[in-house]
Amino acid sequence: MRGLRLRSSLLSSLSLGLGIALPWLLPTPLRAQSAPQSAPTRVSDSAAVVGVAESLLRAISTRDTTLARRLMVPGAQLASIPDPAGPTTASRTQGDSAFMATLANGTQRYLERMWSPSVFLQGSLALVHAAYDFHLDGVFSHCGVDTFTLVRSRGEWRITHVAYTTQRAGCAPSPLGPPRD
Asked: How many domains are there within the chain?
């Protein structure tokens, strides 16, 4: 009986060990892998995602809902985070439909500019992070940081989420200089 328990325990250990090691012993094509992107692909993808983020800011600045809709996936979300957040302030989240309605129905002139974007790429996922300033009817309103999350679908980069901080005081001057009318 003792020998049977020992063999059973040994077989359990062996099968557990093989279960852990077997995937690493399989031929390479059977294992999931993340191939590193070549330098030209990373550069062109980085330029493409920054271009999409800048195009959304252009759509906001011109109130172009057709362009904005084309750049965003259905159901995209936008989140505004006050900075610094006080005890009575709260972030605000809206879906793409509410965002499109605001864009279409507003009368104020918007100008949003970003600079020095940083890009993170992993396969078909990208993040763009950049400082920005925002002007209403030609007057400075606020600054902050924009973060865009994008996915590549059917060969196109589209925005799934935009999150941004809104800072009304203490903003450093934009390296882009004053807005041009």
From this structure: 1
What CATH number is associated with residue 144?
3.10.450.50
Q: What is the DSSP letter of 94?
A: E
- Token digits of residue 154: 């059917």
Task: Flag whether pLDDT at 22 surpasses 80.
Answer: no
Task: Work out the number of other CB atoms within 10 angstroms of the CB of residue 42.
Answer: 13
Report if pTM > 0.90. Answer: no
Which contiguous run of DSSP H or E holds residue 84?
none
Cα distances from 126 to residues 59, 69, 71, 102, in angstroms, run 20, 19, 14, 26
For 115-159, the pLDDT digits (tens) are 999 999 999 999 999 999 999 999 999 999 999 999 999 999 999
d(CA 157, CA 117): 16
Distance separating alpha carbons of residues 121 and 24, to the nearest angstrom: 26
- In a domain? residue 12: no
The DSSP H or E segment spanning 118 is strand 110-122
Calpha distance 63→111 (Å, rounded): 10
Q: Residue 51: inside a domain, yes or no?
A: yes
Place of tokens 């992107």: 37
The rounded percent of the chain whose pLDDT value lies above 70 is 77
